Amino acid sequence: MRNERPRQIKEFLAGSGHRDVMLHPMQADASFRRYIRIRKGTHSMILMDAPPEKENIEPYIAIARYLHGKGYSAPEILAQDVKAGLLLIEDLGDDSFTQVLKRASGREHELYTAAVDVLAEWHDEARRFFDPQALPLPLYDEALLMREACLFADWYLPQVMGKDKARELRGEYIALWQDILGKAPLASKSWVHRDYHADNLMWLPARSGTQRVGLLDFQDGVYGDAAYDVVSLLEDARRDVAPILAKAMIDRYLAASGADRERFLTAYAILGAQRNCKIIGIFSRLAARDNKHAYLNYLPRVWRYLEHDLAHPALADLRRWIDSHITADQRGVIALRHTSQELALTA
After folding, report:
1. Do 279 and 240 share a structural domain?
2. In the chain, pLDDT over 70 holds for what percent of residues?
3. Which is nearest to 277 in space by CA: 123, 174, 141, 207?
4. Which one of 125, 214, 263, 268 has the minimum C-beta count within 10 Å?
5. How many domains does one find in the chain?
6. 17, 144: one domain
7. 13 and 117 together in one domain
8. What's the mean per-residue pLDDT of the chain?
């Protein structure tokens, strides 16, 4: 099907009134999607190329339209071909939070404040995003959280201790997470972006209020606990967020959203640990399955975040288990022992 892709793209663009345009491929991400900037004179748009055998663009379309309709800066959808996995969307520019902060690190407080204010507005009792009739989404329930936590056991543990030992310990790891999540004070009625971090946030200073924050990569959105997005922002796998800044942003979020502090901080630690275990598993999978070894370079930072989360009393048993089985030198850039074929894993 990939051999047919140039023709499909050309026909899609022509059918949406965009012939004789300039195509500029953009940097790829960790998914199977790719993005191409389309230039026509002084105007530009973004083509999302999501192979239908790998990606389903319908959740993206539904969430984009919902957010856009609510006044948030999700890209407007300009044309679509769901069957072909092609979308033409508004171009929000190149100024991701990551890029802005590379040029001017002193603007961290300004940008993170804006990002937290968006979250607080989403999660405030008076504006809580929970509308299954208008936006039917999966629940971020225990089953989904467990599936994600298991990525650590299935993709990371075999690389640091061998697949036989990892198989022996998998049951213990799963039982610990089942106990944690079974007792966790997690809510389930907030809209959760699920990948809310500096690479997926665009700075749009010409707009006002919460519209200054452009939103990308929200297609995996769910209904779950609001703390998850705050963790995503402040425990960013790709960049360091200073503890003093993280604390200030948590305090701002709590003041603005009206969330109960103790319950929120417990949920933050649990979901932070779950997310970081998931990310360690995903980055190990990207290396073993997709030959994207650069993701292994992020593991030391993710481990630092995980160790911080594990300091919470609700995670004491998991912390002891990890300390018993995973040494300090295994919490960095690892060398792969097994391919995905050797692990008999493909998902």
Report:
1. yes
2. 96
3. 174
4. 125
5. 2
6. no
7. no
8. 93
Q: Do 59 and 203 share a structural domain?
A: no
User: Nearest to residue 287, comparing CAs of 345, 340, 248?
Assistant: 340
Q: Do 152 and 262 lie in a common domain?
A: yes
pTM exceeds 0.90 for this model:
yes
Alpha carbon separation from 166 to 176, 179, 280, 325, 345 (Å, rounded): 15, 20, 15, 10, 14
Better pLDDT: 296 or 29: 296
For 204-260, the pLDDT digits (tens) are 999 999 999 999 999 999 999 999 999 999 999 999 999 999 999 999 999 999 899
Domain end among 90, 108, 125? 90
**Which among 147, 151, 145 is positioned nearest to 182, based on CA atoms?**
145
H or E element, residue 14: helix 5-15
Selection from 45, 56, 106, 49 nearest residue 78 by Cα: 45
Phi then psi for residue 263, to 5 deg, are -60, -45
Q: How far is CA 154 from CA 32, 53, 143, 168, 329, in A?
A: 21, 24, 16, 11, 20
My answer on whether 217 and 72 are in the same domain is: no
Distance of CA 108 to the CA centre of its chain: 20
The model's pLDDT over 57-111, given as tens digits with 9 standing for 90+, comes to: 999 999 999 999 999 999 999 999 999 999 999 999 999 999 999 999 899 999 9
